[in-house]
Amino acid sequence: MVSQVTENRAAGTDDREEAGFLRVSGISKEFKGSTVLDGIEMSIGEREFVTFLGPSGCGKTTLLRIIAGLEVPSSGRILLRGEDLTRHTPDARPFNTVFQSYALFPNMSVEENIGFGPRLAGEPPKAIRQRVGEMLELVRLHGMEKSVIGQLSGGQQQRVALARALINRPEVLLLDEPLSALDLQIRKHLQEELRSIQREIGGTFVYVTHDQEEALMLSDRIAVLEGGRIAQMARPQEIYARPADRFVAEFVGEANLLSCQIADVREGRVTAVFSEDSSACFEVAENARLERGGRALVVLRPHEFAICEDPADATLKGTVYEQAFLGDHLRYMVSVPGVGTIRVNGGLNGDRTGTEVGVRIQAGCGHVIAE
Amino acid sequence: MTTRGHGGVVDERARLPKPSRHRTELRGTLLAIAQVTPLLALILLVLGVPTVFLVVNSFRESTFLGIGPGPTLFQYQEVLGNPDTIRLMVRTITLALTVGAVVTVLAFVLSYGIRFRLSKRMANVAFGVVIATGVASLIVRVFAWEIILGRQGLVNSLLETIGVISEPLEDIYLNRFATIATMVYLYLPIATLIMYSSLQNVDEKSLEASRDLGAGRWQTAASVVAPQVYVGILSAFAAITVFAGWDFITPQLVGGTGGLTVGAAVQSIALGGGNLPGAAALAISTLILMVLVILAIVMAFLGLRRFGKATIGPHLSVLLAKGRRIRTQRVSRLSFSRPASLLLLVYLVTPTILVILFSFNSSSTLGLPMKGLTLDWYSRIVGTIGFNDALSGSLRVTAVAILGAAVIAIPAAFRLARMKAGPAKTAMWAAVYSPFLIPPVLWGAALLISVTETDLVQQGVGLTTLAHIAFSFSIIIIVVYARLVGLDPHLNEAARELGASAWGAARRVTLPLALPSIVGALALAAAYSLDEIFVTSFTIGTDNTLPIWLFGQARRGITPGVNALGVMLLIGTLLSFVLALLVSRSSSVSRRK
Description:
The complex is a heterodimer. By secondary structure, chain A is of the alpha+beta class. Chain A is built from 10 helices and 20 strands. Chain A is 23% helix and 35% strand. In chain A, strand 9 (221-226) and strand 10 (229-234) form a beta hairpin. In chain A, 43% of the residues are buried. The model of chain A is unreliable at 1-19 (pLDDT under 50). In chain B, 46% of the residues are buried. Chain B is built from 26 helices and 2 strands. Chain B is mainly α. Chain A binds chain B through residues 68-70, 72, 87-92, 95-97, 99, 101, 103-108, 116-117, 119-122, 125, 164-165, 168, and chain B through 203, 205-206, 208-216, 219, 224, 227-228, 314, 317-318, 320-322, 324, 328-331, 333.
């Protein structure tokens, strides 16, 4: 398993997803009259790293638990390679879960925890010992076989939980906010490791998090969930550059939402009018239905603007009322009459607080969504 | 407690700068001594010294007049040299072990169900039922089995009605089976509570993880849950075995002619025959044998656990896994422990309800059919000679015991909550728990021997009250301590920093927060005291309390009148419990706000 090299791993992701490896079909879940999940449809490809991203209460953990079999859906089906697993109990599914609280068995050593699954499967003790060793190697805990769970740090416990789940060679590994209880430093470190482990073993990972940065960094694809529905499911770049709606735009990355009027619609591009003397041309989100004369929002990231010295180049004009130093750049808060406050990134030169500036939208940037 | 002078916030501030470190320390030490001395003194007086008397006197001869000269091994030779006595001991211990084992298994199932399988609301109801039946009067719960198993009881009536039998079955009642069924019922609640408290430390997620990793329900319970709570399992087993072994009420009421157990023998030798050294020797021998047997079982269990982990374990899981693979490809979501625990709850509730129901039955026999409703039995039993004395005895004992215990227990609980873990604290806890560590029959016999020897106190309400103070303060300390350590320690620090003295902080912050738990603890102790019969039967002498009087009446047959009296006692204990519950609930609500 560990040594199984995955040369044939495709560079892109798009060709993997339609294989219909793991299908979530029309999954709904109701708890005491309130709808937690509402008709979730998705298809996850083999060896894909998919993240469910959303604020707390969006249903992401419930969806993961339904896939794991720890929760029964009110309706809908879970299919693996076309086989219906919806009525299977968790132990009958070829999936394993890494829990947020790790859920390690305190009565067992590291070795016994990791060897739990193979032991149940009736593997000979010698083979189990060897495989546990391999797993410890994989998660970089070699030599800690005999350690007691209570003596491990949070990061170490997380590695044991990961090894315990992976040793069963699950068809899909489910991870429920596995890093959220850890310090920032260890979290960053484990993120990288998790990604490289996934590449190394060529496994299918489904990951739940509320941390958009984590989702962007780890995933092949992200499903942004809101109120029990998928707001958007796409590659991270796509989610970031072309959010489907206002919720996604605001939840993933930092966004300026500029209200505008649609002047012209042509071949997926519109001309947006901000005020009498400023307008620009943008791409439109796929699902956004815009009409000429209607109102819409332009999504612009802070780095998609530039402060311009020549007022003639400026799309918008405003006053800087605050600026902040953010390490490698400055952040200006610019008050634009008729539009509102926009956040603009700029170079590290000079103090502009209180000055009038022109702001230019960089070429090819910006994206229009429904209001 | 220090004097009133430095109670307020204002004068504390005015006295800045603070008194010298030396003086503060000295005052702290004196306070600590004042807080724990009464407790230790009382434990020594009513438990420590009598136990010494008990042991010493078991090495003395008995004479016609009472206790003879010593030291001699005569009493032990009498006990251990008599095959009948040995048989009695073995029978008692086997009975106790049977009850212990059955109760442990059932309690595991029930507490597992409550902890993991029942819905939240259902689990709350179940937990309430367990506590309520555990608190409800013990002797009355024994009565219920007459209604169920007796000659005209439910089982016989039912079987007759459906035509399975024509004559009532005699051999389901007044025998060993009835004794075991009754004792299992009596001790299931307490075992469930012990087990539940250790199951609370088991993370629910570890069950999910186990299932997720491929274990079935039984495998999860056996290989993930049980090993995490084996301490709880063993303590429940040991505790119930001891309770059942020294319960002399149940065998006498439902055990029939074969119902003699060591406890009953000790009681009748000590009280009836007056052979105190003989009773002491019998009790001590049986206790030692019982402890040895329990220890052997616990050691065997632990050894097997270690051994099994190394050798049998892997093979066993292979077997289990092979069996399972065939079964669970597609499983229904029916579980075992949910219906099982619901059944056990019915088992706990039904007898108590029957007792209450039949106290209103106008028929003069306890059994079916119900003829009509009447309050006759209540008025009759209240009018019986002896009732008033028993009632006033009970009220006096309980009221004085609870007040006395509160005065001793509350300061001690505060002290305990502030003590750091260490030998001193361990010793304190040993003292607090000791009234429950010594089997009540031995404690009772020890008290009886002590008063006979010293002539300082006489048997009666006074002596009984002393004993009741001892176990009451145990209950109060345990409950109040739990609340005090649950409080945010920063609360007290904040109060001190804002200028309150130690006493001021306690009075203005900690005490109000702990008050509901104190009231609840007092009510719980009252319920226990009101119903206590084992120790009381040795100490009460010619006075009376309700349960003692009730037991006396019941030995002549459980009549509807006796049953009605039982219901009154039941209601008394349950009311105390409900009060405890209401008070603690209102406190938890205010905490949430």
